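To the team - 2-(butylsulfanyl)adenosine complex, inputs and output below.
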Amino acid sequence: MEKKEQVKRKIEKLRAEINRHNWLYYVKNQPEISDGEYDRLYSELKELEQKFPHFITPDSPTQRVGGEPLKEFRSVKHRIPMLSLENTYDEDDIKNWITRNRKIISDAEMSFVVEPKIDGVGISLRYEKGRLVVGATRGDGYTGDDITANLKTIRTIPLVLRGNFPEVVEVRGEVYMEKSAFEELNRIRAEEKLSLFANPRNAAAGSLKLLDPAETAKRKLNCFIYQAGEISKTGVSTHWQLLEFFKQLGFRVNPHIKKFKTVERILEYFGEFSAKREELDYEVDGMVIKVNEMNLYEKLGFTMKAPRWACAYKFPAKQGSAKIVSVDIQVGRTGVLTPVANLSPTKIGGVVIKRATLHNFDEIKRLGVKVGDWVWVERSGDVIPKITGVIVSKRTGNEEEIKIPETCPVCGADVVKDESNVAVLCTNSFCPAQIERGIVHFASRKAMDIEGLGEKVIKLLIEEGLIKSVVDIYKLKKEQLLKLPLFKEKKAENLLKGIEASKTRPLSKFLFAMGIPLAGEKACQILAEKFGTVEKLSAAKADDIQNIEGIGPKMAASITRFFSLPATKKILSQLKALSIEHGRMRLKSQKIFLEKFLSLRGKSRCPAVRRRNSFSKTAAKRLLQ
Ligand code: IVH
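Output:
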């Protein structure tokens, strides 16, 4: 009898200890023991529980993953409805929301808590006497599914509360899947020929709806808590304090939550966070702004579906769905054939999207995408939208396979697979499409940055026979331009000015413009720094180049091969004849530049400026050699 009591006490002690280390490791990110030490405690508890199974309780840390697969989920009625939020993409709506609230509460003091809006699955967790009793989905807001067994597999969800907890604690939060875990999951699913999840939110939702908790446990889910449901007593009067209280109870609260008094500061933080959210390993689709003073909630009340004390300010949407109407094959500057989908127009984040890249034919195979399919389309910033998945449930059976062309769709030459076996290439280096894309790249912003020489104008100049290579750009005459449709005096002059200005671009941009295979913008900057002139770089051996930090052997080989090609030599000598010889062309302007910096150097009180100036001096000096 006494021994049993002792064992029970030992088990309880171990559980408390394991729970604490679990909390330190997963919630606080501050472990105090090694993984090995943790494993020892865990094994000790496991062994005791195996020997004395009648002491096993559902809240034991050994019971996170376990139990039989369910047949179906039980329904759970939310005692306090899980409402949704008023959404907006518009700054003015936020200002109006605050003004309206100020009117309702008249003179009362009002501050705001701003939280990342986690793009996951809303859940509720109910604890009685400190123990997790029910975990549920939001469902329709009034009734959800009992997914307790699945939620217990998430290590940041405490099974037992810490500290001084009220009798009943119900909290609400968001379960999500980290972006990296989502990518990995889809990678494995693709290998196993299973359908892919369109985004981390769908993956999280799918994982919580698995009937076998052991499967959910494999899905690497996580959770942030941000709201109270039914709580018997908190002793707090603001939302900020409530979040602090949650932390004390052992819940994981998002670290980017802030408190502000004015709308200006809220909007400022929104902008700041919007820029840095890409760095986070979870999707955030906006910010939730909540009135901090909870005594105002009653007065503010509710609209039909949402409380007036909270509001979601969303980032421009990134994802939408569309139907693939047809697929075009584009031929790039290096001859690579890229499939591009023409879509039924769809609005994503306020922009109408009609085309999206499919990258290459391997990607088409990986996604299993066909013409006629409904697909998920993602856009971020200015980059060309991409297709991330097929909505298989919308298939009709009339979809058509996308085939790899046997010849170049532009010039009819044979196509081959490149060394990596991923890209399909046109074999004709005189392919008009390759030439056109090469010129577009040469004139583009990150390369020679020729103002007025965009895709349309280049197409026109090629069609009219005025340019056949980048060299011809520098031979263009005003009279020729004036004969072109839509070219008036001003436009012609501006283009010629743009072309003239491009002659003084730094060597790094010139190298990038040349389109050396494998050498990106950064590599070209390094090469320009190291070699100073085109001659020195073209005379360098692959060994010398690959010894430079940031340049690998593959790239070094590609660079020497590029400069050994007769076509490259020809273009360089033609450009030289036109006195476009970067590295020396700018001698005069660089001297002025260097003198200016030398006179300024060390004078600035700002250390960043001082550092920049001293760097510019060495860089400029090297270029002057
Ligand atoms: S508060 C009544 N805070 O967004 C207020 N919701 O569109 C209840 N969400 O159903 C929600 N992050 O699933 C709140 N920091 C956050 C949130 C958040 C994500 C989700 C939640 C909710 C949905 C509303």
